[in-house]
Amino acid sequence: MPALKLFPQLIAWTALAVVLLRGCPERRRLTAGACGAGFAAGVLGIVLLSQSFSATSYVVVRSLLGGNFLVLWVVSAAAFYRSTGRSGLAGPGAQAQARPLATGSLSFFFALTAGGVCACRLPAAGGDLLPLLAPLALMLAGLACLAGALAGERRLPAPLTVGFPGLLAALVALLLFSSSFLIRLDLFSPLSMKVMKCTHDFVHQFMESILIPDHIFVRPAIWGYIGFLFGKEVGFWGGMVIWFTPVLLVLLAIRFEPLPKVSHIRQGALRRKMLAGAMRERNLRQVIPALSLVVFAAAAYQSCYPTVEYWDPKPVLVTATAAGDILLAKKGEVDLGDGKLHKYLYRQGGREARFFVLMTPAGKLTVDLDACAICKPDGYGQTEGTVICYYCKTLIPLDTVGKPGGCNPVPVPFVEKGDGVHIDGLTLINAWSNTVQSTTKKESGK
Q1: DSSP of 283-344, one letter per residue?
Q2: Weakest-pLDDT range from 89-98, 331-340, 361-370
Q3: DSSP string covering 25-50, please?
Q4: Are 328 and 203 in contact, with CB atoms under 8 Å apart?
Q5: 210: which DSSP letter?
Q6: Predicted pLDDT of residue 231
Q7: Which is it for the CA torsion 401, 403, 405, 410, positive or negative?
Q8: What is the dihedral of CA 345, 350, 351, 354, to 10 degrees?
Q9: Strand, helix or coil at 268?
C-alpha cells in the first residue's frame, strides 16, 4: 500500500513527540497542543506550497533541517564548554526551568518541521488520492500518533530525564532519520559531497599554486598519497566526523559534569548516598542522547543504502553511418519523449562513449554524457523528478539537465530533425575521452 511509505516518518514523529513530552513533563498539555498545531501547520504549509512551487517545498524543509543541525552543533559545543566549569554554569541543576513560551515555541517548531517532512512524502504516497484527502488523512494519522505518544510517555520511568542539549540532539536525530528516506531531503550524502569537493579544491589549489606539480621536494611516490585525498572515501569519513560529533559532545558534556560537593556533610553514609544518586541521575540523562546516536547512525546508513528504486536502463549499443553520424529515432522501440532516461553506448576505433537522451519537463530533448566534469564516470540514475550522480549522490533537477557546470551531466551537441536526433560520433568520443581524462587526473591528484 502507498500509505506504508509514510511509516518511517510517522514512527519518527511519534518518537519525537515522546521526547518533547519527556523533556517538558511539567507542561504536557502545552507541549501536546503545540505539537498537534505544529504538525498540522507543517502538513498544510508544504501542501499549499507544493501546489504552486513544487521544488520550493523541498528547499524550505531541507533548509529547516540544515538549520536545526547547525543549531545542534552550537548548543553541543556550548554544553561541552560549560561542562569544563570555565563558564561558571557547570554542574547539575545549572539549567533553568523552561518557560511556557519557550516550551510551546520549541514544540511547535519541531512539530512543524516533522509535518513538513511527512508532507513531502505525499506526492509519492498519495498521488492517486483526492487533492485534499491525502493531507487530511496524514493530519489525522499524525494526531493519532501524538495520542499514542502521550499514552506511552506516561509509562516511561520517572527518573528518565533529559536536559536541553540531549533533548535537541534527539529531536534533530529523529528529523534527520525521517528525512533520510527522501533523497531530496537527505543531508548526509550532500554533506559528504561538500567535504569531498572542499578537499578536492583545497588540495588542487595548494599543489598547483604553492608547491607547483614539478616541485623538487614532491617525489612521484608522494603523489600516490596525495591522490588518496581526491577519493570519495575522504568525503565519507569527513562527513561521518561532522555528522556524529555534536551528539558525542553532548554525551561528553553530561559525563564531565562535576558531582555535587559533599565535603560539608559529616556523615559518610549520607555523602555516599548523595554521590550515588547524582551519578545515577547523570547516567540516566545519557540514555536519550545515546539513543539519538543510534538514530544518527541509522540515518547515515539509510542515506548510503537508500531504498529508492532508480531508473537506470542498460546502455544500448549504437552505430554511426560512414560519415560518422549517429541517428536515434524519436519513436519506435524506444520513445525518446517519454521523460525517461535512455542510455546508449557508442564505440569507434577502440574507444567508446556512454551517453543518454532525456526529455526535460520543459519538453526539450537533451543529449548528455553519462558523466560529469567533476566526478568519476559512474553514471546517473533517475528518480523522483531528478537524476542522481552515483559517485557523489548529487541530485540534479530534471529541468537543469542539459546545462553545463557543477555535477550536471556534460551536454553533447546534437541536431534534432524530423527523423530523429543526430549526433556526431567523433565529437561524442572526444567529449567522453576529455571528460574521463580530466576526472582521472583529479582522482589521482595530478
Answers
A1: HHTTHHHHHHHHHHHHHHHHHHS--PPPB-PPPEEE---TTSEEEE-SSSSS-TTSSS-EEE
A2: 89-98
A3: GGGHHHHHHHHHHHHHHHHHHHHHHH
A4: no
A5: I
A6: 67
A7: positive
A8: 10
A9: helix
Position 425, amino acid: G
Domain 316-444: give its CATH code.
2.102.10
Q: What are phi and psi of 387, to 5 degrees?
A: -110, 150
Answer for the pair 400, 364: CB distance below 8 angstroms, yes or no.
no
Predicted local confidence at residue 133, as pLDDT:
82
pLDDT at 97 over 80: no
Non-local CB neighbours of 83 within 8 Å, separated by 6+ positions? 90, 252, 253, 254, 255, 256, 257
- Give the whole-angstrom CA distance, residue 308 versus residue 124: 11
> What are the start and end residues of each CATH 2.102.10 domain in the chain?
316-444
* Consecutive H or E run containing 251: helix 232-255
Residues 204-234 pLDDT 10s? 677 666 555 555 555 556 656 666 666 677 8
The grid cell for 146 is: 501524538
Using 50, 70 and 90 to split pLDDT, how confident is the model at 5? confident
* 117-154 confidence digits (pLDDT tens): 999 888 544 444 456 788 898 999 999 999 999 999 98
* 200-204 CB contacts, 8 Å cutoff, 24+ apart: 200/229, 200/230, 200/374, 200/442, 203/229, 203/230, 203/445, 204/442
- Strand 386-389, strand 380-383: pairing: antiparallel
pLDDT at 45 over 60: yes
Task: Classify each residue of 100-132 as buried b or exposed e, where b means 16 or more C-beta atoms within 10 Å of its C-beta.
Answer: eeebbebbbbbbbbbbbbbbbbbeebbeeeeee
- pTM value is 0.75
Pairing, β 342-348 against β 316-318: parallel
Per the CB < 8 A criterion, the answer to whether 336 and 342 are in contact is: yes
Residue 393's pLDDT is what? 76
Could you tell me which of 79, 93, 103 has the C-alpha nearest to residue 27?
Answer: 103
Read off the DSSP letter of residue 180. Answer: T
